[in-house]
Amino acid sequence: MQSLSIPPNRRPPRLAPPRRDTGRRDPAPSRWAYRAQRLWLTPMFRTALRVGLPIVGVLLVVALIFASADRRAAMAGAFTGLVDSFQQRPEFMVTLLSVDGASPELSDRIRATLALKLPLSSFDIDLTAARARIESIDAVAQAEVRVRSGGLLEVRVTEREPAIIWRRASNLVLLDDTGRRVDDLAFRSERGDLAVIAGEGAERAVPEALEILAAARPILERIRGLVRMGERRWDIVLDRGQRIQLPVEEPVAAVERMIALDEAEDLLDRDVISVDLRIKDRPVLRLAPYALEAVRRARGIDTSGSDL
């Protein structure tokens, strides 16, 4: 029988000797332990355990506490009492109200409008609403409201300055230079320094009326007032019942021409009832009846049959 020879470089591998059971625990981790270790090494998982788990626990406790209506009411009452005790501290109490920039009458009206029952906590005062109530007064153009140290509520107002008197059918009204109402006026003599306007829509054209009065300054002492005609134009009424009828367009320029004509011819000192300036460069004069008759006689016109 022929024997087989194995080359030295092709020797069969050595077999490991069988493992003997020595009763000792395998140090290698199990599959679940390995996965748990890998999970613990994840930063997001560690953060969730350190932060998320306590938050969840707190939320559960809070939910259990607020599940009871009695506990909710007790906690709300305790919180309200704490807030009230803080807001009612002496350093937050307002005890004085100061009104600056207003006349005594307006100051009394502001105090009555605010109607604050002092002392009062500054937390209970709505400064924005207080300012809105003050500026709702016609005589107030602007207001500032702030709480000062020492328990002082300071109100600074800017009054509307009356610029003209508006004669209505039932009463007299003071208006500022924009046409905003300032106050009622009992008697015309109380503000003799102001001119009077009348007519439908006169209050909406106050700026133009003031410009006309400024241009008519040389005859201002004779002006009794301005009358709005048809809500379109003005008539100037003088003290002798004379009227200057102004055009719709460029009334100030027409007044300036009228003043120049009067200074040159003493026109308004004559027996003129009205001067119509509505047609540019063609003033029309209306004479008194007796003056017109005198003119006709001077020109040799027979007036015997006239009804003048």
From TrEMBL:
Entry keyword set: Cell cycle, Cell division, Cell inner membrane, Cell membrane, Membrane, Transmembrane, Transmembrane helix
Q: Does the keyword Cell division apply?
A: yes
| A biological process from GO | cell division
Principal cellular location given in the protein's record: membrane
Classification via InterPro entries: Cell_div_FtsQ/DivIB_C (IPR005548), FtsQ (IPR026579), POTRA (IPR034746), POTRA_FtsQ_type (IPR013685)
**Where does the POTRA domain start and stop, copy by copy?**
92-160
In which compartments does the protein localize?
Cell inner membrane; Membrane
Top-rank taxon of the source lineage equals Bacteria
Residue ranges of the region described as Disordered: 1-28
Residue intervals passing through the bilayer: 48-67
Q: Does the keyword Endoplasmic reticulum apply?
A: no
Indicate, by first and last residue, each region the UniProt record lists as having compositional bias (Basic and acidic residues).
18-28
Question: How is this protein positioned relative to the membrane?
Answer: Single-pass type II membrane protein
Question: So what family is this one in?
Answer: Belongs to the FtsQ/DivIB family. FtsQ subfamily.
Function in brief: Essential cell division protein.
Name of this protein = Cell division protein FtsQ
